[in-house]
Amino acid sequence: MSTKPEEMENLTSLAEVLEAHKDQGRFLDSGQFGLDTVKALTKLSQHQLGDTGLWLVKLVQAAVVAQAECFDVTLGRRQVRVRFRPDQKWQADELLHSMLSGRLPANRALLHLITGLRSCAGRLTEALSWSCGQTRVTLEGRRVRIEPQSDSPFFELEATRPARSSTLSQILSRDVGYLLKQTATEHEVLTQRCWTCPIPIVIDGRLMDRGYDKVVRSSVAVRVQPHISKRTSEVHACLGLRHLTSTTSRPKLAALRDEEQDEQIKVTSPLYAYETFLHWPAPVAHGAVAIHASPFITASVELVLDGVVVETHPLEKFQARPSKVFGLQASTRTLLRPRLIFALAPEEVDLSGFQTSDLDIDSLVEQAIPEMVELLHEIANHGRSLTYLVSTRPSSKLLTPLTLPLRVTHAPIYRRVMMTSIQELLLAIKDAVESPSDGGGHQMSPAHSRNP
Fold this sequence. Notes:
By secondary structure, the chain is an alpha+beta fold. The protein is built from 12 helices and 17 strands. A hairpin with a 2-residue loop joins β14 and β15. The longest helix is centred in the C-terminal third of the chain and has 24 residues, at 411-434. It is globular.
């Protein structure tokens, strides 16, 4: 007896479909099979998250969603320790069962946490242990140990990594200290992905630089700071930050807990390296635009979910053209780079949490242009007070002749170059809007996801 096609259309469940086809087949054999949980976990961790350090970013997202006050990381020799206090009562053994089940938790904080644990456990980790609530779990290869402990509100994790080899490019671009400790990947992914985190991140006892206006410094730059050569023509600063109110289709960006909310335009002068010249008086809204003057920044759209950058789209059309001073082309290292920052909704990312689809970046940029232009004009209006010092701001510690940072100022030169660069960027924006190549919209390079 066969089932007619029109009858098949009325079958709604898999059981009904199988029952309808049961009499049409011929029995051959029966048997059993099993799944190797360790191998499955390894494969899932290798394919769900593209980079080896992203498991730590998922833990940051879990802490943000779970309303933790702080995210504390210690990077030892081939060892990473994490500690934060969620507003939820987690049990370590329950997290283990959820991790091994393969199911996706409905709770978003747990979804980030389980994804991070799976990735960390499956990526050649020598040992992984975590504790929360009344239990502690330890994974060592195929061995699993669950132990009781005194009830604790903190989630604590310790991962021991195997020895890693470093390529020449990594040796030249990453912090030597963390390379020696074999934790350079984890350190880099935190600084490059988590500068938008609303809660403080402490790495080895030091607060990490955060903020929508922050210049994300390369590891090489960190090593040579604060003694910046006075011969350099590079400017490392944010000229202006403004929160966007026009992109109402976007979720609101999270407010940084330690960020000051100015009621009027705030101008910083003198301006030290890595500081912000002008803060626009507006609360955190549906996006932000920062105008940067640093070779460490590229013109881009940054997409943020639960406090971390998950995807970056380049805005090559908004890269200002070379500036000219007294008819001579200035160094291209002083050109301005606008950076637009928007929040994502959880349903806009894929299973990895680091890819989006069907997001109209061009439309978002178009909505942000009027406020970006207004910010540029406001920076130009305050240009006379711009004095740039080629050094980082001295700390409150006692300074000695050996520790006194270099304070070199070329105020007229930098002011002239910056003001000319603003005009060039305004022209670049105008060209992008009026470009006939795409019907008057923006001509940007194809959107792509990258590891910052």
